[in-house]
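Render Sodium:proton antiporter in 3D.
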Amino acid sequence: MELFVLFSILITLAALFSYINVTLLKLPSGISLMLMGSVAALGVIALGHISQSFTEIVQQKLELIDFSEFLLGILLSFLLFAGSLHVNLDDLKQSAKSITSFAVLGTILSTFIVGYSFHYLMDLFGHPLPLLLCLLLGALISPTDPIAVMGILKKANLSKKIETNIVGESLFNDGIGVVIFATLLKIESVGVANFGVWEISLLFVQEAIGGITLGVGIGFLGYKLMKSIDHFQTEILISLAMVMGGYSLCHYLHVSGPLAMVVAGIMTGNRGTALAMSDETRDYLGKFWEVTDEILNAILFMLIGLEIVVVDFETSYIITGLITAVIVITARLIALYCTAFTFGFARKMGNGTLKIMTWGGLRGGISIALALSLPPSSHKNIIVSVTFVVVLFSILVQGFTIAPLIKKLNSKGISEQ
């Protein structure tokens, strides 16, 4: 019952803040909910100076939700499937080379740049951390969060090419980032000496290729079942089964669930809607997943904002987090440019596109969830706190300023390349 009451409060707050946003602020929903959730958390902390018991009660209620398990084990499957439903396959094919390159090579490069930079930063501050732990931070913070990206860029005036690259890359580099994180975590648990190049390659292929392959199978099965009937209620249930049953199967087969959901969603949103659904089903299914996406995003962004109450924000952690945020943006810029020049599409994409992709590469709940999933250690607290600061900076600072950047580049005719 306590869990139900907690979710009731979250939904009520999300509804209230969404109403305020629609009527007054008119910000992208992700920014507004994160902003007001953060303000609410700061209000709780302020009240805590008056009544310590009040803060403790709020912390106890929030701790009823295992944020990492809630996002990675439940929300992520729904959000990735819902987001990928709207990705146009033809547009994706045209940008396949750049999206794949950025998602794989770009994420790997960024992981190592951030990891080594953070390692040297902590040495400079007199708080040395193991290199492998720093690389884990690089892996969890390098992928752009598709949930944050799609929510905040939804109203941005972007050219179709740039939008496809940003959204497509964020959908796939999310899965790649989780695979890199899982690989590094495995190395840390068994030791570098017991986990060589062959084992790393095998785990990476199993997770990534396995997830994509299973996603194709889930999407094809769903397509066949939907094509054989014309009953929108049942077809919506089939789409739910694809997400919940498919994601659970990925967990038991030890393959990438995020990549599987992205592939299954793209297949359903393209081949499924075009060839397997009536106009009525297409309309109902689209609206169902749109509403589901909005509700779950509202819960997620509210939780991220309110989780500030339970995170240890020492002054040194905040300073370290802000410096790390700059490192993360710089690492993304370097990774994007290196990848673009390596594969020969830097000139075609143009500097404007790469600048927007750099600043529009937002981090979100997935990074926080991965940080919280780290095994207990004396260093975990600083990793979680730094991750929170980077995510808050990403959504509140980059999210607020991406629209003016796009407008400025559009006025110069740069982002239309």
